[in-house]
Amino acid sequence: MEIEPGEHPARWWIPGREDHSVVGRYIVADDGAATIELNEDLQPPAPHLTQDGDEEFEFPLIGPQEYEILHGQAGHMALTAYRIDVTSATMQLGAAVRRERLRPLIVVEAYEFLGIDELVCMQARFEPRMASSMAWSKVDRSWGGSSEAGHAVTVTTTTMPEQSFELEIGSVTVDQFARVREMSKSSEAISILKALAFTLTLPEPRSLLDVANEWIRPLCLFLNLIDARPVRIMKFHFKSPTVLWPDENNPSNADIPPQQMWTTVRMRVGASKAYNPDKRKVSFVPLEELVWDSALPAWFSWFNSGAAEAQLMTLLLDPQYAWLESQFITAAQLVEGLHRKSYPAPEADIQKNQEFINRIVAALQGESFTSKDRNKVKSALKYRYEPSLEGRIVQLDAVSGHPLDRATRGRVKPLATAIAKLRNAFAHSSEARKVEELRPVQVARAALLLLGFSFLLTRAGLTDETACRYVEQSQFGSTWLWLVTNHSEFLLEDNA
User: Fold this and answer.
1) Is 116:69 a contact under the CB 8 Å cutoff?
2) Model-level pTM greater than 0.85?
3) Going from the N-terminus, what domains does the chain have, and what CATH number goes with each?
């Protein structure tokens, strides 16, 4: 049971203040994202007198903390919105009324209103909007069974066997499902949408927000990597012991106890424009070749330390993030972060460096150095033990199937030195202005992306050689490889 996409009249109020509900709308986009519009202020301003004796209204500051949770009613559906951001607020001229537009992190569409402690989950089902897994295929109208009118009534299609495995958070099942769409009433064909679904079963109830952060977020970022483009939520449902529904056929029968059913959740991460899933064949790993029961556990075990780098990966895959120089700097941050998280400095090196800093600072105590000068010295020496960007590139290349070493025919060290020098130039604005040629920046960015994504796929359980091969065979990776193989001389000449 869920509300269809569109704009729906609704009333909204702060829990415990039902006597001050306001009229507004509940807007569900085609991609599942939810927005709340209020025609009045949920927290009306208090009037006070000015020095001239006139009455005026003072509006309180608004922010997400003021709308931690809201309840709403749209038709027969009870809505519970959680963690709400106020995206805009406008004053209506001639009246002390403010109209607000809100974006909640989570909206639960249920039979009853829920409190924060009732937003718990025992089972969740997640269907991603994933380009490489979604494919429309036209079939004969009678395929899969038909009614008397000739319309398809059941469709069963499976091209990938169901897989189940255990994660730390719970047990997961991956399966492929199908939806039917009629081309037109006069058409003799229907379309079947094949897509993936992930079902999580928890050993005990968990907060819905925890499930979103610990399961949905890393899973979306994993699918971003596999699909080589940002993945969005198509549908998200959950079952909970605190969210019960009456019998669908006898809703007023009190003798039939309410039961757990799939309940719809709208999540902010689902906001994106729909796109044609078959236009670009750019996925890094073919889904039918992915071994889910080894790939997902490997990814989840690494994700706790690599969440920031996974977010950088998503940014680099976003087609709207198109500035070449920004992509280069971000790709360098990605490679540095991947190396830092995968090869942390030994505690002995950190301790030895701290002792060195203490000796330097102590030697400066008797000199004419202020405390500000000494702090600058401490800051400059704090990460002295860390390897350079050049060293990080060479080491990551060695454990990622040698993509750069092969592309440059054994010249990975000069290439790494040139990339580090170019990044240094961009770190200082005066030197960045001297970088007039774009080709060296293109090659450096391509080399970092080729290396970073090859290494990331190894975090998804693939062998070094397999990860490197998948990246190089993809549309993105083959472009990066072509640039590094055929144009690295532009970068190496600049470094000569």
Assistant:
1) yes
2) no
3) 6-112 (2.40.10), 119-303 (no CATH), 322-345+386-494 (no CATH)
